[in-house]
Design brief:
Elements: H1 3-13, E1 17-19, E2 25-26, E3 32-33, E4 35-37, H2 46-63, E5 69-73, H3 78-88, E6 92-95, E7 108-109, E8 117-125, H4 129-140, E9 144-153, H5 157-165, E10 170-175, H6 176-185, H7 194-202
Parallel strand pairs: 5-6, 5-8, 8-9, 9-10
Antiparallel strand pairs: 1-4, 2-3, 6-7
Helix pairs in contact: 1-2, 1-6, 2-3, 6-7
Length: about 210
């Protein structure tokens, strides 16, 4: 298996990803979704964690070889940035969703010098809004953001468009399409459900995917 297939297998095997096309989850936005993803569970599964962190290390080395600092997203990306930073002998920090209302009022935690080349470590990208806020905060602080390395991406049109508009590249270890293929091969879902799930990926607001042919 390649990296994407391995991570898909891992996420499914530890139930970090649930696929329920017959009984959709409801997102905070109200959108009905056939998938629920909790990549924090990778931290509690040592074998999977090794695959993830070595995968992130390889992604940074391959796509962002000039990286000087890793910055995790708060909170899910922090541990992954720390472990990957340890493997690469690179400094790390993290970016809060907003500045603290006490102490020094930091939004960026950890030492960051203007002009340093940064890679953002994220666990999951859907519409891209939260990770772009992190990129913006780092750029405002004078960092040169080389790109994002993430565990999983839905590959949603809205997310891809937002990343393009923000002029930031993302490299994910696994994507929705690969996950669906592996899930069908390993019996987590019926093969007939694949097209429905990909329709959800294309337009989450269109609930017609829930109608089984």
């Amino acid at each position: 298996m390649n990296v994407a297939q391995t991570i898909a297998h891992d996420l499914l095997s530890i139930r970090a990803v649930f696929l329920r096309p017959q009984e959709p989850f409801t997102w905070a936005s109200g959108i009905k979704s056939p998938i629920y993803c909790d990549n924090r569970l990778t931290l509690t599964a040592p074998k999977v964690r090794i695959h993830v962190e070595e995968g992130l290390k390889a992604a940074v080395e391959t796509y962002y070889p000039d990286a000087e600092v890793l910055m995790g997203t708060s909170t899910a990306g922090i541990a992954h940035a720390a472990i990957t930073g340890h493997l690469m002998n690179l400094p790390m920090g993290y970016v809060r969703s907003g500045a603290k209302d006490h102490g020094r009022g930091n939004q960026i935690e950890g030492k960051l010098e203007p002009g340093q080349k940064v890679v953002v470590i994220e666990d999951l990208i859907s519409t891209g809004g939260s990770v772009i806020e992190v990129v913006d905060a780092l750029r405002e602080a004078g960092a040169q953001v080389l790109g994002i390395a993430s565990i999983f991406t839905y590959g949603m049109k809205k997310g891809l468009e937002r990343l393009a508009a923000a002029r930031v590249e993302n490299k994910s270890l696994c994507d929705f399409d690969t996950l669906i293929r592996v899930a069908a091969e390993e019996g987590y879902i019926e093969r007939a459900d694949c097209a429905r799930l990909l329709s959800f990926r294309d337009d989450p607001s269109d609930e017609s995917w829930m109608k089984k042919d």
